[in-house]
């Protein structure tokens, strides 16, 4: 059958029928909100390249977490900016580290908010790389030990889930073992499985004060033109015990999200990263786009591509927009 018997516009005729045949529905349940914590009290410092996002002291992070929870957003992911940095990122796995402190404070006040932590060393090392340095490069295997200590330390402080973002080989299995050996066999791991060496992380590195002090991350994060390699990365993480696999960034890698979802049928997350946020905010501030509508279209496209979960700085804005 074809035109004139077939008229595609019939099912676009009004808002009700469009709602009825809509294939993808963005929900607040899909969203995970990233929060940056730093030492101190009563600190709420706006991140210039990420309008509306803040570095917060633990007390302020508790306040914000309550708002997040009240909006119905189920989860946050915590990033830490430590008091001091050193070559081995000691604050990352210190029992009184900033993320550990924030976890305890938030768990106490907002017990039903699901707490995820980013497990990586780049915010904690003075050289800004995601592991320990040997011969001018990040040494894979010694880094695994530290990542496992960090993950364990987060879980002991109250994290419900850990999310390693370092891109070392073998870290999912290594962290899984460390958690299991310590009685945390029921704590899930969300792997930043296909994480690209992306220029869209620029604003985040201001936010987390974590730019590499020499070189770049291309010896551990993925080369953007590759997609078969992404499938291998995801496969390895699944074999090592990842519960959720993530693709990052989201918008420039929608094709990867779709391939990962189709191939593995795993719970799949996508990280709508800082640069993606900053671009929409900047265009909105210039009056060039309707920021709210572009945000919803963007998040919906990420979900349509196959993401079940979206890590996004828009989580609170989206939750408000979806309520209307
Ligand atoms: C840590 C980490 C980064 C992001 C999340 N975890 C930065 C990086 O790899 O350089 C980026 C998040 C964003 O841009 O929003 N390794």
Give a description of the structure.
The chain has a single domain, classed as TIM Barrel. Helices cover 38% and strands 16% of the residues. It is built from 11 helices and 12 strands. The chain has helices at residues 15-21, 58-70, 98-109, 140-156, 171-181, 202-207, 228-239, 254-264, 274-285, 291-304, 315-323, and strands at residues 31-37, 44-46, 54-56, 75-80, 114-119, 133-134, 137-138, 161-164, 190-195, 244-248, 268-272, 309-312. Strand 6 (133-134) and strand 7 (137-138) form a beta hairpin. The model has no long low-confidence stretch (mean pLDDT 97). Bound molecules: ligand PBG. Ligand PBG is lined by residues 118, 120, 122, 130, 165, 201, 204-205, 217, 273-274.
Q: Which class in CATH terms?
A: Alpha Beta
What is the CATH topology classification name? TIM Barrel
What is the molecular shape? globular
Radius of gyration: 20 Å
User: Could you describe the largest sheet, including whether it forms a barrel?
Assistant: 10 strands, mixed
- Overall SS class: alpha/beta
Ligands bound here? ligand PBG
Instruction: Summarize the amount of helix as a percent range.
Output: 25-40%
Number of separate structural domains = 1
Report the order of strands and helices.
HEEEHEHEEEHEHEHHEHEHHEH
The CATH homologous superfamily is named Aldolase class I
State the helix count. Answer: 11
> Low-confidence runs (pLDDT<50, min 5 residues)?
none
The share of residues in extended strands comes to 15-25%
Strand tally: 12
């Amino acid at each position: 059958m074809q035109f004139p018997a077939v008229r595609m516009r019939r099912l676009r005729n009004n808002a009700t029928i469009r709602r009825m045949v809509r294939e993808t529905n963005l929900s607040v349940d899909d969203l995970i909100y990233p929060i940056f914590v730093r030492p101190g009290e009563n600190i709420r410092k706006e991140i210039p390249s990420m309008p509306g996002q803040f570095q917060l002291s633990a007390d302020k992070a508790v306040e914000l977490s309550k708002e997040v929870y009240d909006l119905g957003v189920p989860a946050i992911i915590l990033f830490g900016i430590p008091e001091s940095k050193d070559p081995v990122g000691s604050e990352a796995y210190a029992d009184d580290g900033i993320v550990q402190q924030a976890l305890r404070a938030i768990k106490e006040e907002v017990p039903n908010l699901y707490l995820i932590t980013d497990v990586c060393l780049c915010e904690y090392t003075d050289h800004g790389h995601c592991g320990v340095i040997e011969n001018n490069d990040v040494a894979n295997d010694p880094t695994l030990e530290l990542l496992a200590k960090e993950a364990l330390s987060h879980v002991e402080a109250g994290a419900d889930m850990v999310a390693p973002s370092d891109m070392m080989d073998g870290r999912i299995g290594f962290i899984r073992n460390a958690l299991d050996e310590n009685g945390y066999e029921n704590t899930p791991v969300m792997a930043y499985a296909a994480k690209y060496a992306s220029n869209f992380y620029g604003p985040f590195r201001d936010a987390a004060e974590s730019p590499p002090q020499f070189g770049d991350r291309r010896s551990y994060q993925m080369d953007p033109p590759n997609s078969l390699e992404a499938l291998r990365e995801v496969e390895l993480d699944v074999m090592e015990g990842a519960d959720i696999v993530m693709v990052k960034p989201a918008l420039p890698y929608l094709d990867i999200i779709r391939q990962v979802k189709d191939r593995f049928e795993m719970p799949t997350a996508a990280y709508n990263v800082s640069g993606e946020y900053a671009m929409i905010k900047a265009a909105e501030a210039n009056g060039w786009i309707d920021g709210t509508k572009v945000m919803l279209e963007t998040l919906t496209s990420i979900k349509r591509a196959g993401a079940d979960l979206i890590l996004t700085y828009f989580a609170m804005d989206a939750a408000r927009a979806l309520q209307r």
